[in-house]
Amino acid sequence: MISIKDQQNLFVEISKRIPYEINVYAIGGTAMMFLGLKEATLDIDLVFTVSDDRKAFKDAAKELGYKEMDSTVVYGVKNNSPEMISLGDSRLDLFSINIIDFVFSTNMQKRAQQTHQFGKNLFLKVADVHDIIIMKCATRRAKDEEDIVHLVKDTEAINWNTLIEEAKNQVALGKETAIFNLGSLLESLKYKHKIKVPKEAIDELWKLVKRQADEKSRSAKYPS
User: Are the CB atoms for 67 and 91 separated by under 8 Å?
Assistant: First the structure.
């Protein structure tokens, strides 16, 4: 496990070895640690919007002894898996815009308001709670669902419409399963974990899924 102190020390050391200013986004358990919602994580999850920035960050980590790791060990054979490097119990999952079945969209980037500076060259922005939930739909491992339950326990802090709108945005960006994934997640939260998810939110998602299916059926029947 990686503690908050370990994570901060690592970022400082990496910053010392980066040759220019880099902006990166924290997602997953890493973001939850910055938001005070988690004390440790199994891996550090980061998203880069510039591929050269990811390479510079990765090269800096390698100077500290990090080695390449096969992402299929963790994620299986999936598109848009991260580049992974590890050192002992510390693992870095480095994504570039696409995160398995989701895109780190412009709206997600704008919602990441909390910023931390490490050393001179590393600026880290923390993903919004809603976007952490959306992105954890992509993997839905057991620990991801546990994290989501923790995130939504204070349901008053959740704007369900923000989740729905981002799922619709993801579909517009080509991630066709986003609405279905979110709908199945919210159903699991409501019926399996007894979270107070509004019925209207779930109903709206399934209406959108039906609309997607109807549009696909029409396209297949009447190809342009």
Answer: no
Long-range contacts of 132-135 (CB under 8 A, 24+ apart): 132/27, 132/28, 132/31, 132/32, 133/158, 133/163, 133/185, 134/102, 134/108, 134/163, 134/166, 134/167, 134/170, 134/178, 134/182, 135/27, 135/28, 135/99, 135/102, 135/104
Give yes or no for a contact between 160 and 131, defined as CB atoms under 8 angstroms apart: no
CA–CA distance, 103 with 171 (Å, rounded to integer) = 10
Task: Give Cα separations from 102 to 13, 80, 126, 139, 210 (angstroms).
Answer: 30, 9, 17, 10, 20
Given a contact cutoff of 8 angstroms between Cβ atoms, the answer to whether 155 and 197 are in contact is yes
The percent of residues above 90 in pLDDT, for the chain, comes to 69
155 close to 193: Cβ distance less than 8 angstroms: no
Instruction: Tell me the backbone φ, ψ of residue 163, rounded to 5 degrees.
Output: -60, -45
Torsion of CA 13, 10, 128, 75, to 10 degrees: 120
| pLDDT single digits (tens) 29-41 | 899 999 988 888 8
Q: How far is CA 151 from the centre of its chain?
A: 13
d(CA 171, CA 222): 21
Rounded to 5 degrees, φ, ψ at 116 are -125, 140
